[in-house]
Design a protein that fits this description.
With about 325 residues, this protein is an alpha/beta fold. The chain has two domains: about 1-170 and about 290-335, Rossmann fold (3-Layer(aba) Sandwich); about 170-280, 3-Layer(aba) Sandwich (Rossmann fold). Helix content is about 30%, strand content about 20%. It contains eight helices and eleven strands. It has helices at about 20-30, 50-60, 80-90, 170-180, 195-210, 270-275, 285-300, 310-335, and strands at about 1-10, 40-45, 120-130, 140-145, 155-160, 165, 190-195, 210-215, 235-240, 250-255, 280. The strands form two sheets. The protein has a six-stranded mixed sheet with strand order 2-1-3-5-6-4, sandwiched between helices. Strand 5 (about 155-160) and strand 6 (about 165) form a beta hairpin. Helix 1 packs across helix 8 (about 310-335). The protein is globular.
Length: about 325
């Protein structure tokens, strides 16, 4: 029997939905009998601007830099039984129509031959968010893709014998774009405002999938090597992602993806309407769910890739969980 410790690190981190996504996918694969001998030992948020502090938790588990989780208003490790019970119930529900879309069928790179075929007695899986994605630059990590080359690592795995790393933001966004009806392989044009780690990963994956990339400027411009179109030659963007949140030019855009996601309020129907796959504005939860699925596909469980939930399934379950936790927290505050 093996154990896995999972954490997501960055700053700010208390709002992160990654622990819920991890819980949902883990128990889905459990139901599919894909990881029968693996149990989750701990879930953790690590508030830090230094990647070494996140890695330190990976080597020796501790309780530092551990903020309350916004969805519960308390520490994650104090509510593991409640989360497991909620996830188990949500996984039995059907996908709601508002989340349905085009399922990606694009070719994916083969699983890295570096990864071990069996799980170790104690595995550590990590996700990194801003501002940590560019900080991992060590020979001690074995990359399974170009994450180290483009300074955009957001997924890590300790196998007991070594660290492995990957970048999954880009592949996740390509899947989200396809799901929302954008034909990336036919030369769809992506406009990026900002040029940090996520932007580099997305631009690289978009180009590999057959699309074009144009820079819209920003505090940090995207690398010239990742640009294939000039803004002056573009009449309409298929997808716009504004990482700085300050883009105000009047350019025709079919879809806009907001990389950040705000808390949702209202009924389940009202929340679903915001996340509807037919909307011209794509909530950042889609990007998070897409990259999280890619973390499992590329690094954590490549042998079970065909058994992973679809993007629509995961988003539908996530919406349910957020709604149920909001109700639970509201009741506890009234008592």
């Amino acid at each position: 029997m093996g154990e896995v410790r999972y954490a997501v690190g960055g700053s700010p981190i208390s709002h992160s939905l990654s622990p819920m996504l991890f819980h949902l996918v883990f128990h889905h694969l459990k139901k599919k009998n894909q990881i029968p001998n693996l149990i989750p030992r701990s879930l953790r948020l690590i508030e830090s601007v230094h990647v070494d502090e996140v890695l330190g938790w990976g080597y020796i588990e501790h309780d530092e830099h551990n903020p309350d989780w916004a969805l519960l208003g308390s520490r994650l490790n104090k509510n593991s039984v409640q989360l497991t019970r909620l996830v188990g119930e949500v996984l039995t529900r059907d996908i709601r129509p508002s989340f349905e879309g085009v399922e990606p069928s694009r070719k994916r790179p083969p699983a890295s031959h570096h990864l071990p075929s069996q799980y170790h007695g104690e595995e550590v899986w990590l996700n990194l968010t801003s501002p940590l994605k560019h900080q991992l630059q060590s020979m001690a990590f074995t990359p399974v893709d170009k994450g180290m080359d483009i300074l955009s690592v957001n997924t890590l795995r300790w196998t007991g014998h070594g660290w492995y790393c990957a970048t999954t933001d880009g592949a996740g966004v390509v899947d989200v774009a396809i799901h929302h009806g954008i034909d990336v392989a036919s030369g769809a044009i992506l406009g990026l405002h900002g040029g940090g780690g996520s932007a580099r990963s997305i631009a690289d994956a978009w180009l590999e999938s057959g699309g074009h990339v144009v820079s819209l400027g920003g505090r940090r411009k995207i690398d010239a090597s990742l640009i294939t179109k000039k803004l002056a030659d573009v009449k309409q963007l298929d997808l716009l992602i504004d990482f700085d949140g300050t883009y105000d030019q009047h350019l025709a855009v079919k879809r806009t993806l907001t990389p950040d996601y705000l808390p949702l309020n209202g009924s389940l129907l009202e929340r679903d309407s915001i996340l509807d796959s037919k909307n011209s504005t794509i909530d950042g939860r889609w990007m998070l769910a897409g990259q999280h699925l890619e973390s499992w596909r590329r690094l954590w469980a490549p042998q079970s890739a065909e058994h992973l939930p679809t993007l629509a399934q995961l988003m539908s379950w996530l919406s349910d969980c957020e709604f149920e936790l909001a109700i639970s927290r509201s009741k506890s505050m009234e008592e």
